[in-house]
Amino acid sequence: MAVSCRSFAKINIGLRIGPLRDDGFHDLRTIYQTLAVHDVVKVDAGKGVGIEVFCKHPKVPTDESNTCWRVADRVLRSLKVRGKVRISIEKKLPVQGGLGAASSNAIATMFALEKALKLQLPPEERLRIAYEVGSDLPLFLVGGTVLGTGRGEQVYPLDELPVLHCVIATPEVGVSTPTAFAEWDKKLAEQPKLTGSSHSDKINKFSHSVYEWLNGSSFSPSGVPDKGWDRAEALLLDLVRAGIENDFESVVFPRYPAIREVKRVLERNGVRYASLSGSGSTVYGLFADEATATEAARKLNETGVPAQTTVTLPRSGYWKELFPSKL
After folding, report:
1. Hey, is 157 helix, strand or coil?
2. What integer best gives the mean pLDDT of the chain?
């Protein structure tokens, strides 16, 4: 039986990096937000043995290193099922762009394979497999607006945000996440005043800023915006006031000026909040209205930077749209 599943993108609304841990990872704080733009993953489970991955994109591996392959292997072993699994990935999202595409593809594989087999893993087993394969995978077991802690794999659903118009732009520049972390560690080593303790403080302040943003003064105690405010507009203004930023910008932008320029173009064209997503190379912008977002995307495309408009996807929409009647 073949099953198709949408594989949604994510952005990071702010990302604070803590000191290097003994296990080689960094403590992080971030807000994940899923977007409506997506890949499509098709899983066919039948008689036989083995896992095959197919994708036309030249930068997507199709061997055992592929996250979809790794998740499918673990799902089969956990369910104690043998079969021939064929995974086809229809790419629309940029590869290594900071939008979590590979992680989202992997979770879509999990959901589609369960449905194809007419079996379902317990929630805790889904989470265990996601932890094993990668830090970004668990957020796609939640969807919507999600607080990420630990190395990003500890996820907590937050209250839904209103639907926001978004532009995502991905310059033809590849950013290696391990290299970005190495540059961050090098920066800390060169600036002794930025101690591990001070960065732990920054992480705690980030959590406080998130709380202040999501419970901002623009809203009444009931959560309804004060008179005269549009909720989306108020939320974006509060986001800017909260000073929520992505630490990777301080090391990625100097190395890749073309990525920095994308953010500048957005800032010159009506964006309310713009940021690098993850370690890049995608830069996104949140807008108060569709027309302004569309015009900003047009300006970026004119400069040769691939850009498109989308909207933020709340948790309810995320789960509703995974398996639509027609793809």
Report:
1. strand
2. 89
CA distances from residue 43 to 84, 136, 264 in whole angstroms, order as listed = 10, 21, 41
Instruction: Please compute the mean of the pLDDT values over residues 219-225 and round it to a whole number.
Output: 39
Catalytic positions are 10, 136
Residue type, 167: V
For residue 5, what is the DSSP state? E
Query: Using CA atoms, how far apart are residues 313 and 99, in angstroms rounded to an integer?
Result: 14
**Distance of alpha carbon 58 from alpha carbon 278, whole angstroms:** 22
Longest Cα separation, the chain:
63
Lowest mean pLDDT among 18-27, 85-94, 282-291, 296-305: 18-27
Domain harbouring 139, CATH code: 3.30.230.10
Q: Is residue 317 part of a domain?
A: no
pTM: 0.89
CATH number of domain containing 201: 3.30.70.890
